[in-house]
Amino acid sequence: MIITLTANPSVDRTVTLTEPLRRGQVHRAAEVTTQPGGKGVNVARVVAAGGAPVLAVLPGTEDDPVVQGLRGAGIGYRTVPVPGEPRVNLTIAETDGTTTKINEAGRALTGRDRAELTAVLVELADAAAWVVLSGSLPPEVPVDWYAELVATLAPFPHTRVAVDTSEAPLLALFADPGGAAPDLVKPNSDELAQLTGLDPVALADPATAAAAAATLIDRGAGAVLATLGAAGAVLVTAEGSWFAAAPPITPRSTVGAGDSALAGYLLADLAGAAPADRLRTAVAYGSAATALPGTELPTPTDIALDAVTAGPLRPSSIRPAAPA
Question: The whole model's pTM is what?
Answer without folding.
Answer: 0.92
